[in-house]
Amino acid sequence: MVPELQKTTVRIQQPERVMGLIRAIKEQGGSKLQVISDFDMTLSRFGCNGRRCPTSHNILDNSHVISEDGKKKLKDLLHHYYPIEIDPNRSLEEKRPLMVEWWTRAHELLSQQKIQKGDIAQIVRESDVMLRDGFNELFDQLHKYNVPMFIFSAGVGDILEEIIRQANVFYPNVHVVSNYMDFDDNGVLKCFKSPLIHTYNKNNSVLQGTAYFQQLSTRTSIILLGDSMGDLTMADGVPSVENILKIGFLNDKVEERRGKYLDAYDIVLESDETLDVVNGILRFILMET
Ligand code: TMP
Ligand code: MG
């Protein structure tokens, strides 16, 4: 059915359930389908040749517009809070206030750096960001079959939109909800717009009445893509879900986190920097029979 599921990076706890879900989504057809995806480390790569790739925040942190002192402070925050973010032994309740702290402090630091709106395109162009291999096919297929793609990100909206724009895949079926920068009249960053989206509040609480999902209420089949345990609630605002297939990229601390990921995600992709499996499943679902 989907040859890509034979890749050695694929782990599935309940194969029959997964095959049943994929078949059911295919039966419903492309007109019932929507894709809901995280951005950082899900659509973008986690690593390349043994080096880490940047998140949308890191793209700003590493850029020439941030002072050395600012860079050091942002790196210190990352080294303190990232291990907490991915710690499988802490509960979400424990993590949530700490994530609010991280995002608030990082956004405050960034807002002191006089970042210019006009510099964003160059900052992205000069960064090491990479979309996962196969991103072209993913965005092209969804566009071709008019499947809405909702990107729900705790990263920086202005940066990730620029990434997909520079990759020439920002099609009209792509809709982004994220943290957006607020610029003053001179185009200088003054703060970030609310609501603050962090890893563990990706649910209706920040989707303001979930107008987007209401509009798509007939799209009852969902493919959800994420890399964090916080991404699992991204579809909570969808009014009537019939079939949801959750695909999780397990990028870091693979051994430690495998059990939790296998329990939560239908398909787990371990250290897989490609979108091969997602594309294979979509090809099967959208293929005319
Ligand atoms: P997301 O992939 O769930 O949308 O979350 C965005 C990622 O951004 C999350 O893994 C943490 C990371 N991050 C940074 O790298 N630097 C920062 O300053 C902040 C606040 C988050
Ligand atoms: Mg992510």
From TrEMBL:
Keywords: Cytoplasm, Hydrolase, Magnesium, Metal-binding, Nucleotide metabolism, Nucleotide-binding. Signal peptide: none annotated. Its main location: cytoplasm. One of its GO terms (cellular component) is cytoplasm. InterPro entries: HAD-like_sf, HAD_sf, Pyrimidine_nucleotidase_eu. Monomer. This is 5'-nucleotidase.
